[in-house]
Amino acid sequence: MHTLRKNRPLRRIVLSSAATVSGMVLLLSLKPHTAPTVAGLASSPAPSTSSSTSSGSVTGTRTLTGDSVQTRYGPVQVRITLRNGKLTDVTALTYPQENPRDQQISAYAVPQLTREALSAQGADIDTVSGATYTSDGYRQSLQSALDSANH
Questions:
Q1: How confident is the model at residue 32 (pLDDT cuts 50, 70, 90)?
Q2: What is the DSSP letter of 82?
């Protein structure tokens, strides 16, 4: 019998065990993401496409609503608050939530997008992994609200 055709069960067991252990070590070494917070999400979104301001001056507090942006999974719309020209609050008015998966993605993505927008003080924010369409719609609605603040 040829040496390459010999059955070596012990060798196979050792190699498969080593591969399994290596895979588990790599998997466990990944950094877990933080748990999503749901506190920042609106409970009943109001579909509106108009921009509104509470004060017309550059100083003081202004609240502006961005355009409703239609995404593959539903509309996304945000409302911003500017205090003395600084972005102080971003609230998602509408976002995909038609089914449990949409709700799960939005519960994770919307607070993360809000934190990034406040940190960046604008719409130059990263896309949330797994929520590409929601991120794009959020960014576009945020930019439209910021653009209306400059007019």
A1: low
A2: E
SS3 content of the chain, % helix, strand, coil (to 5): 40, 20, 40
For 45-104, the pLDDT digits (tens) are: 433 333 344 444 467 888 888 898 998 888 999 999 888 888 888 888 988 888 988 889
pLDDT value at 23 more than 60: yes
Length of the chain in terms of residues written: 151
Where do runs of H (alpha helix) occur along the chain?
A: 9-28, 100-120, 132-149
Span 61-149 CATH architecture: Alpha-Beta Complex (3.90)
72-76 long-range Cβ contacts below 8 angstroms, 24+ apart: 72/133, 73/98, 73/102, 73/133, 73/134, 74/98, 74/102, 75/47, 75/137, 76/134, 76/137, 76/138, 76/140, 76/141
In sequence order, the β-bridge partners of residue 42 are none
Query: What angle do helix axes 100-120 and 132-149 make, rounded to 10 degrees?
Result: 40
